[in-house]
Specification:
five-stranded antiparallel β-sheet, 239 residues, Transferase(Phosphotransferase), domain 1, alpha+beta, single chain, three-stranded antiparallel β-sheet
């Protein structure tokens, strides 16, 4: 019998996730050993959950990160430039620390994206970031991590937080914030709109083709990404 009550957590991607005391319990898969290798490598940064083994139900046990998760729509307190810059630096730190694992090509949930430079989180959005007082303090939900190029995460994180959408801000402001994000990471923003489109196309493809995305298909997330892709094409590409 459990010594503490389980509290279901919202979000959790494609998995049922629960909090038990100061831990999080998540289902495992064939990719879990690689994810644990990645989390062990990232642990010294203090920016990701710590692996604590498995529970009696066979679930992985991770440390719980206290703070506010940036569920959409992005809260006003997370829309400032300081948050944008800080998150870009978090992404860079996680990427740099992951480099020793780039030779590990098999055993991830999804295949590598070439050219492989780092281990990408693959869903590095505010809804997988823990904030305290508007400052990103950690990243969660690494179960879809995969080897890939740095821009694979950069493009998606920028898309979500700039954001590349008509809901918040103006096109000039979004251009400015995109450049600021890329500069803070240390990557050029020149090809960012094209790379955002590649990431959105991949999101649409996965939602439509992968069985585990049934809920996202039901909720028509693919149409949401397609609308934003149209916005990027209309306002951020040179015609």
């Amino acid at each position: 019998m459990s010594d503490v009550t389980e509290e279901p957590l919202t979000g959790g991607g494609m998995n049922a996730v629960a909090r038990v005391g100061d831990t999080v319990r998540r289902p495992v898969g064939p990719w879990t050993p690689n994810v644990h290798r990645l989390l062990d490598l990232l642990a010294p940064l203090g920016l990701s959950p710590v692996v604590r083994g498995f529970d009696g139900q066979g679930r992985e046990v991770l440390s719980y990160l206290e703070g506010e998760v940036g569920h959409p729509p992005i809260p006003p307190g997370l829309r400032g430039d300081d948050t944008l810059v800080a998150l870009a630096r978090v992404v860079r730190a996680l990427h740099d620390a992951s480099v020793p694992l780039v030779g590990l090509r098999e055993g991830w949930r999804f295949p590598p994206v070439e050219p492989v430079e780092v281990i990408c989180h693959n869903d590095l959005a505010p809804y997988n970031v823990v904030f305290r007082d508007g400052v990103p303090k950690g990243v969660i939900d690494f179960d879809t991590a995969r080897p890939g190029p740095r821009w694979w995460d950069v493009a998606y994180t920028a898309y979500c937080l700039v954001p590349f959408s008509p809901e918040f801000g103006t096109v000039p402001e979004q251009r400015r914030r995109a450049a600021l994000f890329c500069a803070a990471y240390g990557i050029t923003a020149d090809d960012l709109p094209h790379r955002v489109l590649l990431r959105l196309d991949d999101m649409v493809r996965m939602i439509r083709e992968q069985p585990e995305f049934a809920r996202q298909r039901e909720e028509r997330h693919d149409e949401y990404y397609l609308r934003h892709a149209g916005y990027v094409r209309a306002h951020f590409l040179d015609h």
